Amino acid sequence: KYFLTGIITGLACIMRFPTGLAIGAFGIVLIVNTIRPQDFKKSIFELFRNGLILGLGFLCIIIPLFVSNSYLYGSATLPLTIGQSMITGFMWLYQGGLWFYIQKIFIMNIVAIMVIPAIIFWIIKRKQLSDQTKKILLTLLAISIVFLGYFTLQAHKEFRYSMPIFSSLFLLVSIGIVWLHERFRVSRYVIIVLVIIFITTTLGYSKLFDPADKNSIKPFYNFYTALTDVKLGSSVITSTPTITAFSPVTLYEGYNSWEQMSQVYEKNNQQANYVAIDTCELHACEPGQELLCQRFKTDFLEKLSREALIIYNTTTSSCDLTVYQLHTSR
After folding, report:
1. Among 82, 185, 293, 323, which residue's CB has the most CB atoms within a 10 Å radius?
2. How much is the pLDDT for 309?
């Protein structure tokens, strides 16, 4: 079972690298469940043996990944270093305090507060629980704490990074609800109300932060599909990757800021066929540099107007949506 746990964690890691942190949580569980003061030497040996088996299962997946990366890209850790470089950009835009993720989780769904009864249940009922139940609770707690701790310590904070926490966190929430019901004989109708709150607040949060909800979806749809009929293999310098969901194009990524878009354009405009800009996506501007950002925007748009032909343009809400065709004289 330790080897299989390592393999499953390794598979999760290569699909989404931060989930590999779960190996640390399983290590904590292994230490707590194995170390016995009354038989310390024997338990240390068991810990070493089981930890080695767990690690080997994990490495069976990770080592082939590193080998293939070395062969294909010349660097074993290239995807990791690329990911790290991506999250270190625009740090001032994604800063958050110590309580950033905890606040966001409770804003998303107030029912998450039920994790507190689950922790209390584990503390006061620990001696009465079966070994299997103890292991389940400890595993869920360890995974939640390891993930939450890691993301909290990172300078770059975005709510989407906390998604790996949810599976273990809301299992703890369900345990907290069940324990409250059994301990205080909470009416089943209260449980139903909590479930309704869970569903409605989750749906409400999703609707509130739906990126497609910008007064009118139609102009955005037209913008995203403006290149649907272009030649297969055409390339576009764009502020949004959504274009690829509707068009047979490859991307040059000019995301986040006008400065970055301008730099990507200068580097790739000879190879690119189109430029697609949603001005609302190019919002990143370091505080105190607003005039410089505006100058980058003005200079870049003036350059585009001289070198490219507008084939689609509309304005909706505060967003200008424009598609340019390059090299029209070729």
Report:
1. 323
2. 92
d(CA 109, CA 98): 19
Q: What is the 3-state secondary structure (H, E, C) of the chain?
A: CHHHHHHHHHHHHHHCHHHHHHHHHHHHHHHHHHCCHHHHHHHHHHHHHHHHHHHHHHHHHHHHHHHHHHHHHCCCCHHHHHHHHHHCCCHHHCCCCCCHHHHHHHHHCHHHHHHHHHHHHHHHCHHHCCHHHHHHHHHHHHHHHHHHHHHHHCCCCCHHHHHHHHHHHHHHHHHHHHHHHHHHCCCHHHHHHHHHHHHHHHHHHHHHCCCCCCCCHHHHHHHHCCCCCCCCCEEEEECCHHHHHCCCEEEEECCCCHHHHHHHHHHHCCCCCEEEEEHHHCCCCCCCCHHHHHHHHHHHHHHHHHHEEEEEEEEECCEEEEEEEECCCC
Instruction: Return averaged pLDDT per consecutive 10 residues of the chain, 330 residues in all.
Output: 90 84 88 83 88 92 90 80 64 70 79 82 80 84 88 81 83 83 70 70 51 61 89 90 87 87 92 92 78 90 91 86 83
CA separation, residue 263 to residues 121, 203, 290 (Å) = 56, 39, 18
